[in-house]
Design goal:
By secondary structure, the chain is of the alpha+beta class. The protein has 5 helices and 4 strands, in the order ββαββαααα. It has one domain.
Length: 145
Amino acid sequence: MSMKVKRLIMKSFRGIGDLTLDFEENEPLHCGAKKDEWYDEHLMVSPLDINCNKFFKYTEDEPILPTEVLEKKTAAETTIEKLDLNIDKLQDMRCQVIEAILDEDFEDLTMDDRKLLLDGFEQRNGNGQYEEFCAVISYIIRQYI
């Protein structure tokens, strides 16, 4: 049985470093495939919104958690449930991204470099899209600025 692998490559931002991660693709439905046609403009937190990281809390060893901010908490909880954001695959992927960002080189970055790194992940790429896991990365970097 051959394994399908998805390769996530985040290119260097101003020479700070590349990040390459490989993930198996044969996992349970989640995100858009899971939500199917469900949509509620007041309860759906879109990953296409760079501010979506303000609805969630991320750590290396826990599932994605809703924010404690009351006006955002219900939407966060609903989105986590409807998109099944805490399946093992996504938890593992988030953990790998967080570990890669917080590698030994991160603590050597100056505050200005950390801000540049953050700015890079909060910008759309050449295709007009945000990098995968940019909300997670943005949230984590902000904890160190």
